[in-house]
TrEMBL record:
<dbReference type="GO" id="GO:0004356">
    <property type="term" value="F:glutamine synthetase activity"/>
</dbReference>
<comment type="similarity">
    <text>Belongs to the glutamine synthetase family.</text>
</comment>
<dbReference type="InterPro" id="IPR008146">
    <property type="entry name" value="Gln_synth_cat_dom"/>
</dbReference>
<dbReference type="Pfam" id="PF00120">
    <property type="entry name" value="Gln-synt_C"/>
</dbReference>
<comment type="function">
    <text>May act as a component of the cytoskeleton or as a chaperone for the reorganization of intermediate filament proteins during terminal differentiation in the lens. Does not seem to have enzymatic activity.</text>
</comment>
<protein>
    <recommendedName>
        <fullName>Lengsin</fullName>
    </recommendedName>
</protein>
<dbReference type="InterPro" id="IPR014746">
    <property type="entry name" value="Gln_synth/guanido_kin_cat_dom"/>
</dbReference>
<comment type="subunit">
    <text>Dodecamer. Interacts with BFSP2 and VIM.</text>
</comment>
<dbReference type="GO" id="GO:0005737">
    <property type="term" value="C:cytoplasm"/>
</dbReference>
<dbReference type="GO" id="GO:0016020">
    <property type="term" value="C:membrane"/>
</dbReference>
<feature type="domain" description="GS catalytic">
    <location>
        <begin position="123"/>
        <end position="467"/>
    </location>
</feature>
Length: 467
């Protein structure tokens, strides 16, 4: 483990609160999420990171991926990375009595000529850009949470951890006597500042669902990345391994990452879009007032903002599909009866693309399209971009479960074509990012026969442990 003696480190040149946070840690793990959703990590001593930050410099992630990689691209996975110190938090599963380890998020910032604006190629940076636009243009903040589904196997990755061909929904006896392991893991994740609300078994073999309290801005996507890594480390210590493949089994339900979100008006009290740094979790939290989706005077409690936002998501639903289901294995989930088939919406309707949960005091949207293999940052970025298009154009929301709703893509080829044709999403997320993202999928399509990518065993070799 990389460490440094805290007493030997000169902090005199670090007056900011964010820099002072480094005093809590000996080592910091920097996380870089690539377009595929796979995370790269770099361990660095806190003293070295302090020097880099003081010099306004960047951290280098080397380009070790092969040119024919189906996981790592040459755009978002290597280069000079900017560290987001507001995301710094403890990592209990890596820390020891003698070495405290923290973690922070990074994103690649391409080098450009002086005076020119670098293109956005990082998924996290793309999400932050759309969230900033939402705040600046509409004085709205997004509050969101993913519902994480995963499957847990024995270490070899072939047998479900509980030895069962199925799990009983919400039954503790499906935990196979390993309750203490999972309870300890939950405590570690909570110690990393992750707002976990529940952990329960789902219906498929070894399947769990984790739910979170809603968070502001990009924090919900950060939580997905942090919790994935924490689960891999903690379960590995108990001879188990999780997978976030959409469909790792031939005949079973798939894993989804439903994206729950709502919009909130920002009360800036005349001081602009202020934000404060939570020194325990490191996330920036904008001051919020009311739920902009909720109108207690309407029969269904849905505001005009809600309806325009829904209309934007529905209009761009086909273009959103590839961001939600980007891998060959995801195509199996698209055939699952529980996966939405049309770009529609409905109140409390689990078969809809957009399930609206409404009450007089709270309204939010559950996007049921994302698979567990999605890149959470790209889901956030694309959903916000699509929703803002509905607000800008004041699009008219179609009726519930509209029979004329356009079908959602059910193959990768269709999803690629729909994204390529959606000029609004391409322009919002940036042509450079979308082109690099599409190239990963197009490579899979082009080589599906030579690499036997339609074979589940081959898919598992690629995605089972890394996605």
């Amino acid at each position: 483990m990389l460490t440094n003696k805290k007493n030997d480190v000169d902090r005199s040149q670090q007056p900011s609160a964010e820099h002072k946070l480094l005093d809590r840690y000996d080592t910091v793990q920097l996380s870089l999420t690539c377009l595929s959703g796979v995370d790269r990590q770099l361990m660095i001593t806190s003293s070295r990171l302090a020097d880099i930050l003081h010099q306004n410099s960047a951290v280098s992630f080397g380009g070790g991926s092969s040119p024919d990689s189906l996981i790592f691209d040459r755009v978002s996975s290597c280069g000079s990375a900017t560290v987001d110190m507001s995301s710094l938090r403890p990592l209990p599963w890596l820390s020891t009595e003698d070495c405290q380890v923290g973690g922070a998020m990074c994103h690649i910032t391409p080098l450009t000529e002086a005076g020119s604006t670098p293109p956005i190629v990082s998924p996290r940076a793309a999400a932050l850009k759309q969230i900033t636009k939402l705040r600046e243009e509409f004085n709205l903040d997004i509050k969101s949470a993913f519902e994480m589904e995963l499957m847990v196997f024995e270490k070899n990755g072939t047998v479900p951890f509980n030895g069962s061909a199925c799990s009983f929904y919400g039954r503790i006896d499906s935990w196979a006597g390993r309750e203490d392991v999972f309870f300890d893991i939950c405590q570690s994740l909570l110690g990393a500042g992750q707002p976990i609300e529940s952990l329960m078994t789902e219906m498929a073999a070894g399947q769990f669902e984790i739910t979170f309290a809603p968070q502001s801005g990009v924090a919900s996507a950060d939580s997905v990345v942090i919790v994935k890594e924490g689960l891999r480390k903690c379960l590995g210590k108990s001879e188990m391994t999780p997978t976030f493949m959409a469909t790792p089994n031939e005949e079973d339900h798939s894993n989804g990452f439903h994206f729950n979100h709502s919009l909130w008006t920002i009360n800036d009290n005349g001081h602009g879009n202020r934000s404060s740094v939570d020194e325990n979790q490191g996330h920036r939290e904008a001051t919020k007032t009311t739920n902009a989706f909720c109108d207690s005077n309407e029969a269904l409690f849905l505001s005009a903002t809600t309806r325009q936002w829904l209309a934007g998501l529905i209009q761009h639903g086909p273009g959103l599909a590839l961001f939600s289901s980007p891998t060959f294995n995801c195509a199996r989930r698209l055939q699952d009866p529980l996966c939405p088939k049309r770009a529609n919406w409905g109140l409390e309707n689990r078969s809809a693309f957009l399930r609206v949960r409404n009450s007089q005091s709270n309204v939010y949207i559950e996007d049921r399209l994302p698979s567990s293999a999605c890149n959470p940052y790209l889901v956030v970025a694309a959903v916000v971009a699509a929703g803002m298009d509905g607000l800008r154009k004041q699009l008219v929301c179609p009726p519930q479960m509209d029979p004329a709703a356009p079908p959602l893509p059910n193959t990768l080829d269709e999803a690629v074509a729909c994204l390529e044709q959606d000029s609004v999403l391409v322009e919002a997320l940036g042509p450079e990012l979308v082109s690099a993202f599409l190239s990963l999928t197009q490579k899979c399509i082009a080589e599906k026969e030579s690499l036997s990518l339609e074979n589940l065993d081959r898919q598992k070799k690629i995605y089972f442990r890394c996605i």
